[in-house]
């Protein structure tokens, strides 16, 4: 039981059978739409494509238009055991 | 000419026709292997899957095993015009 091992709560989803993570600030309920074989046949992988049928975001993260990126405190995935905290936020205005 | 507009140099690739970005610390030469239609037919998109046939990384980024994440100074993509600098790196050891 990965929930118990991590000290997290399983809460019921609205539209799908697998539970959501109660402590998570966002949960996506997804159904599988396609499984695409990628890579070479002898050492390939399967790309699982899903459709989010329900999206849950805690109200405190919503700034009226989008998810507040500073409040979200997102984590970036690097390589191996490496991650980064997305604390150093900035904007680039797109050229016309 | 997007290279000229950005003040970047186009340098020849080894295996494909489109040029590489000379100033980039890494270039991937890719060929398209599949184009997968995703989303609903009336407002969907195409997912273009490529195979990297050549990978170029400057030697100064290689630590002997992997790309040095601190030296890489990666940028994270958020939403709209938002980005983050991956300066706040940390490790999480995977549970057994």
Task: Note the main attributes of this structure.
homodimer, about 100 residues, mainly beta, Pnp Oxidase, Chain A, two-stranded antiparallel sheet, 2 helices, 7 strands
Briefly characterize the structure.
Two copies of one chain form a homodimer. Chain A is mostly beta strands.
Word description of this protein:
The structure is a homodimer of 96-residue chains. By secondary structure, the first copy, chain A, is mostly beta strands. In chain A, 9% of the residues lie in helices and 43% in strands. Chain A has one domain: Pnp Oxidase, Chain A, CATH 2.30.110.10. Chain A has two helices and seven strands, in the order αββββαβββ. The first copy, chain A, has a two-stranded antiparallel ribbon with strand order 1-2. The A-B interface holds A 5, 33-34, 36, 38-39, 47, 49, 51, 66-67, 69, 74, 76, 78-95 and B 5, 33-34, 36, 38-39, 47, 49, 51, 66-67, 69, 74, 76, 78-95.
List the helices and strands of chain A in order: HEEEEHEEE
Biggest interface and residues each: A-B, 32 and 32 residues
What is the radius of gyration of chain A computed over CA atoms, rounded to a whole number of angstroms? 17 Å
Q: What is the H level of CATH, i.e. the homologous superfamily of chain A? A: Electron Transport, Fmn-binding Protein, Chain A
Span of the ends, CA to CA of chain A: 51 Å
Strand order of the largest sheet of chain A: 1-2
Strand tally of chain A: 7
Number of domain units of chain A: 1
The CATH topology of chain A turns out to be: Pnp Oxidase, Chain A
The largest sheet of chain A, given as strand count, sense and whether it forms a barrel, is: 2 strands, antiparallel
Reading off the top of the CATH hierarchy, the class of chain A is best stated as Mainly Beta
**What sort of overall outline of chain A do the alpha carbons produce when their principal axes are compared?**
extended
Helical content class of chain A: under 10%
Oligomeric state:
homodimer
CATH architect. name of chain A: Roll
Let me know the average pLDDT of chain A: 93
Q: Low-confidence parts of chain A, pLDDT < 50 over ≥5 residues?
A: none
DSSP summary: helix tally of chain A:
2
């Amino acid at each position: 039981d990965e929930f118990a091992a991590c000290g997290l709560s399983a809460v019921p989803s609205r539209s799908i059978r697998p539970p959501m993570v109660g402590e998570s600030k966002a949960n996506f309920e997804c159904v599988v739409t396609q499984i695409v074989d990628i890579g070479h046949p002898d050492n390939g992988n399967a790309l699982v494509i899903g459709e989010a049928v329900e999206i849950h975001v805690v109200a405190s993260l919503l700034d009226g238009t989008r998810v507040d990126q500073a409040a979200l405190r997102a984590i970036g995935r690097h390589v191996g055991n490496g991650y980064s905290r997305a604390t150093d936020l900035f904007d680039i205005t797109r050229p016309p």
